[in-house]
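Consider the tokenized backbone below.
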């Protein structure tokens, strides 16, 4: 639905409502604020309100939010789904315009509301306050200056007893299975007066008045039933636009008969099916084929031809009581099922349309069907809902392979950008605090809509009491006692620095620096007199490659130093010389102490110090991070550049492949946090970066004057094209089949090969420094707050069309300045490298 622009709602008139059953118990002697009810979880409630209209208004703005999830319908059509991912003490409301769906006469607004009751990857419980914290909805619909439809005691509800409450599969895999009995759910319940209620119990009969919830607390305001209230504070408008929607349809279907008993649990049923009916034994069938069930269950596999994500939807013709178990997975394997969400649907025998309530992702939709008679599936579809990426920006060069790498990288970020930047849409759907620095950097150069790029760092800015950020934002792993990944918070500081460079938004950056400072201070107690961090607690990850981190980690120290330098630069820009000086003092200490990692005999930095003794391993990570942090003295830069460019010496190894979730699934294998000690030739080999850390490597090479090599390095992603082609994998040799942190080339082909970057914060000027490497031509468009910048380059000439003044950095290091508008500039030849 269209979005109302800056509608002035004023105070909330809608009241918090829910059904009779709540996920919290009232206050008592043991708890003044009430407590969660452990027996009430994964509950759904159907809410409805009918009203009459004589005339349809030109505009009918609405707003709605809930704890935990809602789908809003107007006259049977979905108009909003939310809320967006949020912390436990914040909540955002969705808005829109319902006027196009209203009609003279009887109208209905309806809400399917859900309360998880337990943390999932995209939601964590809020503190309970009397009657709130166990499921609630508030909504308003404006029909004119003097008329609103608001949630209050005039609404009715029906318990969502068509769904069987489910718990997470495990502590690591917390997606919740969905079990729906269509016989208990009238397909027309969203339109009052049109449901027949035959055998469903939730047509026009069986509806009862809702319960209005009180927000009373032990201390504070008196009783109230409206926002703003504890535990959510002031409700805020949705910070990102509504998600775009594209319908993806399966390109082929295969089928196979099954023999033996099918378990009732969907995951077990599907695991048994993929073990017995592999893609080799399942035969191709028409998408709308009819399958007989009298001889036994049937296995169906719909292939979407690439990774898709959203709400899986099926239309079914079958006898009442036919049972369908399903899932959307990366591969038709037991290991893939162990990390995926599953569902079970029982048909009502008419109007059977099932759509997953939660977002799912994968390439293959798997179904096990059992019952009697015959069953026919309509085409399997996924209603893909992603953050918007409007047309405009592009990259094109004379190498089709690089063009394809750029395209697939954009698709990878699209698939992992929903209400936050996600690690992957297929397995976890968690908003990892550090991963998102790559997604954001791609969006800033390839997406005119920067709303998610601006919002995501703020979403992650929910520190623990000690100032350190959680390893994920607003999800199951964002709570105690789960430890954190300290280096992920340092990548988050870099994402704030990117906002400073690209947006130039002083208010936004200043607000985030108030979180960045405690993050940086969290590391200070681990600092010893040598200026270095030693024995930092938590999960020091760095990358999936086996970078050695015991004792004093060179890579971690360098990342901290880079974050300190970023902080100092931003503090200076904001006029805060005191904090800038504090950060630079710490940076100088790291710079002095970092010399201890240098091994003159090896001509390289070693990865760690343990009890004053150098470790053996050498990594790409340490050298790249040290360059980006300004820790490498001038006389060593040529050595470091040569090390980073010696790709023959690089090796990578991913625990995801040989002991992680690729083998037995996340709950059945050894922890991927285990890190191999050096069993390689440390005097010759260098631990290479997995796709994620390559963004730091490429940044370092550009700083070392080797930006012309980056187009060659982006060709490494050709190996990832061969593992599916629709999205980039998590690691060179394993991991999820769609991981946003692997999309660095989609940034770098624009930033380094075409060479478009802000010359000052907010693109007051733009710098153009094309470094084509082996290419003979490249062109593209990059968004800025002032409009697009278009560049077309050959090795000896560049043409720029820009809304702001331009500075061209020539290959020989000289700088020329040009006005806004169109300019054609001859490029001076490259200067010889100084070794």
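A designed sequence for it:
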């Amino acid at each position: 639905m269209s979005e109302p622009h800056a509608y002035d709602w004023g105070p909330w008139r809608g009241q918090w409502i829910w059904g009779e059953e709540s996920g919290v118990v009232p206050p008592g002697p043991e708890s003044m604020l009430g407590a969660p009810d452990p027996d009430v979880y994964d509950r759904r409630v159907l809410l409805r309100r009918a009203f009459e209209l004589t005339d349809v208004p030109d505009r009918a703005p609405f707003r709605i939010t809930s704890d935990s999830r809602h789908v809003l319908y107007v006259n049977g059509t979905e108009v909003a789904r939310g809320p967006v991912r949020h912390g436990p003490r914040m909540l955002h409301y969705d808005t829109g315009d319902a006027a196009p769906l209203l009609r003279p006469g009887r109208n209905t607004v309806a809400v399917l509301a859900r309360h998880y009751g337990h943390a999932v990857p995209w939601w964590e419980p809020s503190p309970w306050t009397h009657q709130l914290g166990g499921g609630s909805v508030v909504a308003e619909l404006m029909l004119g200056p003097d008329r609103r439809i608001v949630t209050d005691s005039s609404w009715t509800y029906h318990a969502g007893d068509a769904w069987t409450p489910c718990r997470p599969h495990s502590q690591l895999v917390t997606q919740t299975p969905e079990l729906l009995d269509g016989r208990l759910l009238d397909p027309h319940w969203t339109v009052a007066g049109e449901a027949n209620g035959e055998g469903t119990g939730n047509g026009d009969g069986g509806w009862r008045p809702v319960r209005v919830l009180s927000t009373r607390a032990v201390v504070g305001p008196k009783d109230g039933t409206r926002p703003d209230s504890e535990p959510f504070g002031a409700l805020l408008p949705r910070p990102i636009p509504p998600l775009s929607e594209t319908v993806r349809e399966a390109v082929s279907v295969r089928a196979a008969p099954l023999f033996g008993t099918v378990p009732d649990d969907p995951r077990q049923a599907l695991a048994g099916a993929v073990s017995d009916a592999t893609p080799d034994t399942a035969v191709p069938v028409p998408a709308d084929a009819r399958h007989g069930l009298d001889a036994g269950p049937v296995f169906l596999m719909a292939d979407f031809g690439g990774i898709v994500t959203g709400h899986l939807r099926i239309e079914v013709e079958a006898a009442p009581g036919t049972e369908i178990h399903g899932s959307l997975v990366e591969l038709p394997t037991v290991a893939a099922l162990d990390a995926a969400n599953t569902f079970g649907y029982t048909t009502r025998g008419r109007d059977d349309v099932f759509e997953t309530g939660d977002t799912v992702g994968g390439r293959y939709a798997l179904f096990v069907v059992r019952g009697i008679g015959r069953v026919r599936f309509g085409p399997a579809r996924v209603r893909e809902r992603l953050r918007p990426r409007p047309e405009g920006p592009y990259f094109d060069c004379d190498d089709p392979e690089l063009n394809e790498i750029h395209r697939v990288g954009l698709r990878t970020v699209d698939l992992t950008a929903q209400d936050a930047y996600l690690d992957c849409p297929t397995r976890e759907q968690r908003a990892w605090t550090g991963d998102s620095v790559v997604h954001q950097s791609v969006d800033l150069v390839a997406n005119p809509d920067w709303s998610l790029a601006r919002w995501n760092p703020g979403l992650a800015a929910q520190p623990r009491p000690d100032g350190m950020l959680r390893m994920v934002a607003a999800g199951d792993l964002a709570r105690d006692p789960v430890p954190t990944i300290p280096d992920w918070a340092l990548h988050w500081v870099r994402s704030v620095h990117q906002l400073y460079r690209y947006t130039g938004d002083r208010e936004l950056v200043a607000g985030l620096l108030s979180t960045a400072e405690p993050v940086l201070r969290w590391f200070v107690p681990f600092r010893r007199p040598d200026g270095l961090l030693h024995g930092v607690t938590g999960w020091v990850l760095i990358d999936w490659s086996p970078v050695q981190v015991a004792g004093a980690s060179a890579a971690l120290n360098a990342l901290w130093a880079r974050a300190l330098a970023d902080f100092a630069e931003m503090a200076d820009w904001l006029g805060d010389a005191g904090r800038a000086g504090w950060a630079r003092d710490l940076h100088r200490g790291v710079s002095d102490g970092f010399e201890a990692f240098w091994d003159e005999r090896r001509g390289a930095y070693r990865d760690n110090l343990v009890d004053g003794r150098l470790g053996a391993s050498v990594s790409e990570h340490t050298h790249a991070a040290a360059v980006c942090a300004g820790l490498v003295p001038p006389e060593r830069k040529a050595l470091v550049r040569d090390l980073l460019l010696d790709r023959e010496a690089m090796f990578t190894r991913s625990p995801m492949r040989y002991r992680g979730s690729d083998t037995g699934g996340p709950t059945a294998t050894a922890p991927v946090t285990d890190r191999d000690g050096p069993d390689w030739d440390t005097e010759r080999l260098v631990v290479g970066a997995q796709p994620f850390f390559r963004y730091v490597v490429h940044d370092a090479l550009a700083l070392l004057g080797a930006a012309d090599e980056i187009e060659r390095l982006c060709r490494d992603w050709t190996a990832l094209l061969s593992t599916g082609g629709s999205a980039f994998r998590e690691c060179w040799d394993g991991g999820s089949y769609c991981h946003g942190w692997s999309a660095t080339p989609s940034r770098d082909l624009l930033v380094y090969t075409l060479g478009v970057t802000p010359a000052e914060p907010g693109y007051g000027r733009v710098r153009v420094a094309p470094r084509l490497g082996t290419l003979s031509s490249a062109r593209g468009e990059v968004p800025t707050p002032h409009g697009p910048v278009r560049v077309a380059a050959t090795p000896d000439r560049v043409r720029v069309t820009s809304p702001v003044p331009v500075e061209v950095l020539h290959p020989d290091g000289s700088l020329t300045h040009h006005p806004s508008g169109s300019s054609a500039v001859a490029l001076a030849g490259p200067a010889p490298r100084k070794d």
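The longest strand covers residues 298-317.
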